[in-house]
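Input sequence (172 aa), recorded before submission:
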Amino acid sequence: MKKILTLVSLFFIASPAFAQTQKWAVGFEVGEPIAVSIRKYGERNALDISIGTYIGLFKSKDNYKVSNDDLGGVGVMFNGTYLWYAPFFNERMIAYAGPGVQVNSRRYYPDRNVKSVYTTNISTGPSAIAGLEFFFSQKPASFFVEGGGYLELIPKFFYFNPNLSIGLRHNF
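Predicted structure, token format:
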């Protein structure tokens, strides 16, 4: 196993660095959340804006608020995160982490047969993510995996929901 890890590490170190961070990136992620993200890269930092759905993939829908609809309170999510990153392997991979803020809007239906009766909740709180991004050789695309969490402060104080997603970005 150590030989394989050494060979893979040498491959990435010896590979030419054709793919690396650019000024902007647009991507799509699946998992928790399912979102479209836009990233603006700086010297060793970035601003990441994600818009999508936050469905509570890692928690039961009963943990937050009872909703008798089939989707359990699916809604719209907006997340802004400030990231610091460090390149590895001739900038073929970066590790990143940072804090952010998230705003959600969800509908809850007390009776699944009556779609005209619902409540809408706007929630907000801090978030944080950490991840790894791998840049394909000689292509403007990258693959990423990231995890973190969202801590809701309003309306449900200290409600925590973990995040874990994978995705692809186009760097330009």
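Checked by second reader. The beta strands are 24-32, 34-41, 45-53, 75-88, 93-108, 119-135, 141-152, 159-171.
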